[in-house]
Design a protein that fits this description.
The protein is mostly helical. Helix content is 53%, strand content 5%. The protein has one domain: P1 Nuclease, CATH 1.10.575.
């Protein structure tokens, strides 16, 4: 297991990413979660991850999303192209998250449903799993809890683009998806993930408990509802930097914070 993890870390270190929150956001979420783990959860994760921080593996699923489909038992059907492990979240018209694939969807687009499967498998059997099988499931949970909180990763009934349309920010042409994954965060917070986690992890026990309450499906519903306006921007819009940042940064920070606390809640529940 030790050799496996060292090799995996090396791969992550040399790869780039264009997925939700990018490296800074995902590592920040993992760091917030790590700061809110129970001693028992910390003990198990230290053992299973060869003593390394969960932040080391926060973006790991980005690099193996094609390969892991088979590993987690998914066999794509009716897919016209290569299907990757779901990093986006489809919701119904009322923002609820289907417990499966939304009606009419041919490709897998429900990270909440498949992440919930990984959570349930770990809860039931993490002590007896093969090291590599357990690692894949932990890495998926670490990453996908973050993905489901990224506003650009939500697919609505009337807007299935997940932010894949062009806008202009700071006079630069980019996807709205890219803006919310990385550019907006770095524009305001050009620091390391530990610093950003320290800035965001300031809630008291009561506030944290409120955020951690509910199910993963409740969290998906909330993310979809509060992020709807992000997708209402017309393609080609020239966004005014400061007005757009000031209007939307509270949502971005809130989603990172919620993802961190909820990841801690999930891990504490799995490894209790």
């Amino acid at each position: 297991m030790k050799r496996l993890l060292i090799a995996l870390v090396a791969v992550v270190a040399v790869c780039g990413t264009a997925s939700a929150w990018a490296k800074l956001g995902h590592a920040t979420i993992a760091k917030i979660a790590e700061q809110n783990l129970t001693p028992k959860a910390k003990k198990y994760l230290t053992k299973y991850l060869d003593g390394k921080s969960i932040a080391h593996f926060a973006s790991h699923a980005d690099y193996y999303k094609k390969d892991w489909l088979v590993d987690v038992g998914f066999e794509p059907s009716n897919a016209k192209r290569m299907v990757t492990y779901p990093h986006t979240l489809c919701v119904n018209e009322d923002f609820t998250v289907p417990k499966g694939v939304r009606d009419g969807d041919k490709l897998v687009k429900n990270c909440v449903y498949y992440t919930d499967q990984m959570i349930q498998e770990l809860k039931a059997n993490h002590r007896d799993m093969d090291d590599s099988v357990r690692f894949v499931r932990i890495a998926i949970v670490l990453h996908m809890i973050g993905d489901m909180h990224c506003p650009a990763h939500i697919r609505y009934k009337d807007n299935d683009l997940a932010g894949k349309f062009t806008v202009y920010y700071k006079n630069q042409k980019m996807d709205m998806h890219e803006l919310w994954d990385n550019a907006l965060l770095i524009d305001r917070h050009p620091w390391g993930f530990s610093d950003l986690a320290a800035l965001l992890d300031t809630f008291d026990k009561k506030q944290k408990a409120e955020i951690m309450s509910g199910t993963i499906y409740d969290w998906g519903y909330e993310s979809a509802r509060c992020s709807r306006h992000v997708h209402d921007v017309e393609p080609g819009t020239k966004l005014q930097r400061l007005p757009y940042m000031n209007a939307n940064f509270p949502l971005l920070e809130s989603q990172l914070r919620k993802a961190g606390y909820r990841l801690a809640a999930v891990l504490n529940d799995i490894f209790k």
